[in-house]
Amino acid sequence: MVKRAIIDFNFLFEREAAHDILSEALEFPGYYGRNLDALYDCLNEYSGLIIIKNADFSVDSGYAKFVAKVISSADEANPNLSCAWFKGDIPQKNEYHKNLSRLEFVMTYACTGNCRHCSEAGKDRGFKLDGEAAAKSAVYASAVYDIESVMAFGGEPLIFAKEVAKIMKAAKNSGVKLRQIITNGFFSNDEEEIKKTARLLKRCGVNGVLLSVDSFHQEVIPAGPVKLFAGELISLDIPIKLNPAWLVSKTDRNPYNLKTFEALKDFKAMGIPEASGNIVFKEGAAKENLSEYFGGESEPINPYEQDPNDVRAVCLCPDGTLYGRPALGEEIIEAIAEYKP
User: Fold this and answer.
1) Under CATH, to which class is 95-337 assigned?
2) Strand partners, 7
3) CA separation (Å) from 224 to 9, 237, 259, 267?
4) pLDDT tens track for 126-151
5) What is the pLDDT of residue 231?
6) CA–CA dist 41, 221 (Å, integer)
7) Structure pTM?
């Protein structure tokens, strides 16, 4: 069971009081030994998020500094434990992000395809998101905001599957309910590597995969590895849905959409349901390659645009920035705090 606890280090100066507080807040068993060794042992069995406030050790902090060392050691040793440390109180929410519930991570703009509809075409493919640092961003954001969903995408995110796994594991520890990736399913030709990646996603807690299947993707990537990957996800009980890109609208009978309907049939035969998908919008490669399909009052707009006064999702770029400033680890809170529309 994933837990969530808040520890105020202002009340951990004395040994006995410290263990009373820790035992209650962390729901330790009755046999808890009430010493630092016992604390470490229990934390090694802990699953969840610990939010520490008033952890300012620039002044005499008594027994708290010893507790801090134990928690830090357990955080490093226990993959099911995540900690967010604040020198003062837990930061207040930015008024323009009071309804923030979703974190998005662009792992890379590098991709195994070169699709003619790609909105990210032309962006710098040289960066990849630091998974460990981005995982800390997920932890700190979840400590302050009510994060319900985390998503990783690209480019092709599974080129860096281990980095994705770090983020998803931290999100799971932090109690984030929905942990998704969007992938075209082609990140390797090696059968064992494909199976290994599927198992990694299972272990780190991914509980939603959106598989980009449509005329655009299937035009440039091989079907075999994608179907193998999809089959592995199904065998591991990882929820998977098809996420096609439609041109103009799903009901428009243009050549691209007709090919998408055909491409979807093979995957639906595997028992994979179809999500709502998305509509191609006029950015990146689509602007150049599909210009004849855009124009008029019904032209689709970028679906990722939000009300600047009520931001509900934030997205870290592959270079670790948000709103044009560093946002890895605790810095994500500072980046959000400084935002003004």
Assistant:
1) alpha beta
2) 52
3) 55, 20, 18, 11
4) 889 999 999 999 999 999 999 999 99
5) 98
6) 49
7) 0.95
**C-alpha span between 268 and 274 (Å, rounded):** 8
| Ranges in the chain annotated CATH 3.20.20.70 | 95-337
Homologous superfamily of domain range 3-85: Barstar-like (3.30.370.10)
d(Cα 163, Cα 170) in Å, to the nearest integer?
11
Burial class, 22, CB count within 10 angstroms (exposed 0-12 / middle 13-18 / buried 19+): buried
Closest-CA residue to 335 (of 196, 190, 140, 158): 140
d(CA 202, CA 165): 9
In the chain, residues under CATH classification 3.30.370.10 are 3-85
Task: Give the contacts of 196 (CB within 8 A, at least 6 positions apart).
Answer: none
Whole-number average pLDDT of the chain: 95
Closest CA to 157 of 134, 139, 136, 190: 134
pLDDT at residue 120 in the model: 86
